[in-house]
Amino acid sequence: MSDDSAPILSIIILNWNTADLLRACLQSIPPSPSYEIIVVDNHSSDGSVEMVRAEFPQVALLAQAENLGFSRGNNVGLEVANGRYLLLLNPDTEIKPGALERIIQFMDEHEEAAIVGPTVRNPDGSLQPSTSPLPSLRREFLRQTMLFRLLPASHDNKLRQVESVSGAALFIRKAWVERIGPLDPHIFMFYEDSDWCQRTLAAGGQIWFVPCAGIMHHKSAASSRFARTRTLIASQRGAVYYFRKHRGAGAIFVLRLITLVGMLARSARAALNWLLGRNRSDQRARLRAYGQILRWAFTGRGLDG
Question: What is the pTM of this model?
Answer without folding.
Answer: 0.93
